[in-house]
């Protein structure tokens, strides 16, 4: 590894660390803040659930593209997924800053299933941030072997987060107050 790449990688790693810590902290802070007298943005949950569903589809399409040697399509799909994830995050925070938390209203085993899916979704959505950024950065460092190695872990976690985001929405949506 050349010295220039090493310096670039160190800069990327610092930025990835800052972003990976800042995003969950900012989301947690904003999640707890309610905008006074704001009308609930109740139209957002189906939109951001749809974004999660689209992300899952595009993640699979990106893997198919790269397996078929279509690097440019893969790159564009992955960039689109990162943009969709950022858009999801903005909408998710906006919704929660204007709306009260919805409580899952069912009882029995389905309640435990819901909370298991929700908790794993939340934990993995936080852990996928640095994984996505590291995997993505490897391309800019022209380290395609490291990119492939990181992608083996990043892809299934990101796919799980996208799919469970849709499942959480489907399971909680009957209990929305609006």
TrEMBL record:
The keyword Flavoprotein does not apply. The keyword Acetylation does not apply. It holds the Pfam family DUF420. InterPro entries: DUF420 (IPR007352). The chain crosses the membrane at residues 12-35, 47-66, 78-97, 112-136, 157-176. Keywords: Membrane, Transmembrane, Transmembrane helix. It comes from the Bacteria. PANTHER family: DUF420 DOMAIN-CONTAINING PROTEIN, HYPOTHETICAL MEMBRANE SPANNING PROTEIN. This is DUF420 domain-containing protein. It comes from Flagellimonas lutimaris. The lineage of its organism: Bacteria, Pseudomonadati, Bacteroidota, Flavobacteriia, Flavobacteriales.
């Amino acid at each position: 590894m050349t010295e220039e790449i090493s310096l670039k990688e160190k800069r990327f790693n610092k930025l990835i660390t800052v972003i990976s810590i800042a995003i969950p902290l900012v989301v947690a802070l904003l999640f707890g803040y309610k905008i006074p007298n704001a009308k609930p943005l109740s139209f957002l949950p189906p939109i951001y659930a749809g974004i999660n569903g689209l992300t899952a589809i595009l993640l699979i399409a990106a893997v198919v593209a790269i397996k078929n040697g279509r690097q440019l399509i893969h790159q564009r799909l992955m960039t689109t997924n990162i943009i969709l994830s950022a858009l999801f995050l903005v909408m998710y925070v906006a919704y929660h800053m204007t709306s009260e938390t919805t409580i899952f209203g069912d009882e029995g085993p389905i309640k435990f299933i819901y909370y298991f899916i929700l908790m794993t979704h939340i934990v993995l959505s936080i852990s996928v941030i640095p994984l996505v950024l590291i995997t993505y950065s490897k391309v800019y460092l022209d380290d395609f072997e490291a990119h492939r190695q990181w992608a083996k872990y990043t892809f299934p976690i990101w796919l799980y987060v996208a799919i469970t985001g849709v499942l959480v929405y489907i399971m909680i949506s009957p209990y929305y107050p609006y």
